[in-house]
What we know:
mainly beta; Signal recognition particle alu RNA binding heterodimer, srp9/1
Amino acid sequence: MASAEFEVPEKDANKIMTIVLPIGKHNVLIANDVPEFMGRVNENENRSKISISAESREEADKLFNGLSAGGNIEGAIGDSPWGTYAGMFRDKYGIEWIVEFNPNYNRQI
Length: 109
């Protein structure tokens, strides 16, 4: 992710920005490192995320509301700048989730 406009310190140059492990047909487990230059972190900020791709807005709402109950909402579910319907949260057990519905994704592939 380093460039002329965005320098990355040498000690952070080999960290993982994002790694994705497919789970089933439409879901993924996402993990990343947090470089030191982004500030102090704790174990809750350097963990994996589970991303769920819903079949509809209604399913996304149901998954988001059910799984986030008792947890902390980090990004309310709604229309995203990149054209999807998505939200992020940490559930009551500390697991991070992303729930997303992409109306442009062709599920007939």
